[in-house]
Every structure is written in C-alpha cells, then in structure tokens.
Amino acid sequence: MNYSVVVPVYNSAEMLEELTERLSAYLKNINATFEIILVDDGSTDESWKKIEQIKTRYPDTLKAIMLTRNFGQHNATLCGISLATGDQIITIDDDLQFPPEEISKLIACYNSTNADVIYGVPESKKHSAIRNIGSVYMKATSDQTKGGSSFRLIKREICEQITDKHQNNFLFIDTVVTWYTNSIETTPIRHEARKSGQSGYTFSKLTGLYFSILINYTAYPLKIMTYSGLFFSIITFLVGT
What we know:
about 240 residues; Spore Coat Polysaccharide Biosynthesis Protein SpsA, Chain A; globular
C-alpha cells in the first residue's frame, strides 16, 4: 500500500527529528511505499531549519513545505493533503502525543472495515485542561457523531473531494469529511504527554477556532437569528396591541 503521512508543524523543532525517524522506521518495517510531508505553519522557532536538515537525510521520502505565515492546523494539514500522492493519507500531530507506531491500528482498522475515514481516538487524553474543555464544547456543538481527531487515515478519493472543493479561508476537516462520506470508523489508540515545549493552541487561539467552527459549521447562528426574530416579533405585536 502507498501511504502519505501529513504533519502540520508549528514550533516543534525539538521533536521533529525523532518524529521523522519513528515514522520512517515504522513504515519501512511494514514494507510500505510512503512519503512524509512536513508543513511548517509559520513557526517562529527553528522548525524550518530542522526540517531542511532532516530533508537531506530523507531526500526520496520527505517533502518539505513552508507556509508564509500561520494559517492554522487544519489549513496546514489541507495544504499537505493537496500535495500527497498516496492511496491512503494519514495525518498526525508534530508533538509525538500520538505515537507514530500507533499508525498500525489505523491501518488494521482500515483493512478490517474498508471505511473511508479512520480516526484514532485516545483511550486517555493527555491534553491540558483547556484542550479537554474545548473538546467537550466541540462535541456539544458539532454535527459530527463519530470520531474527530487529528490522527486519522483518509482514503484518497475523499481527500481529493476536499481539496478540490474547499479552498476557503477557514476549513475544519473533521466536519467537511462528513459531507462526503458516512463510512467513518474509530479505533482506540495510546495518547502520551507532550515531550517538549508547549502546545500551539493558546486559550485565545482555541477560542477563535471554536467560534469559527460555531459560525461556519453549525446551525446555531441561524437558530439564534430565528429565535431572536420570533422573540422581537412577539414583543412588537404585544406592544402594538
């Protein structure tokens, strides 16, 4: 099987070498044809310099993309997906909280179900309290009923539909995939504590992300306008009578 592994990178210079080594070692071990795509999403540390160094060690299997500024994790991931050539596209974070070896569980689930999308769902999350609260909010407001994780395997056909039709400024991959398929499965995976540095998701960035999702991908704004209009219509009617 031919796999593309897409990694959105943001201020993770200290972890990139280990991440790339473990990804490459695992994929070679299963005799896969593969490529690793590192997308630097406007990092302010030495991430791009580290990516360039790693590229010299893996010239045939690593693609390196540098974005002009920070566009956000989902847009950076979409950029990598648009350049992927694999039959299956796997996305994984840059912080090693999802162990690269857990890709085996995504592949096993795909082989047994042939689903269009496989999500690796942590058995026990090691995120910060803010991230965990945000996850609860996301599940409460999102129309998504299954899965939802940045550790995923997506069939090429679904990826092509997403990249061909969605080039807007804000994209939330986990909602958009549900517009094109109901064939979604999940598999439990290990989730480890961040090895170094801090998450790129600050409180302000998380708040902005959640409001963008609320406005762009849920019916809540329409419901609020509808109920507000109904409320003011009733008030106007009562005052007028």
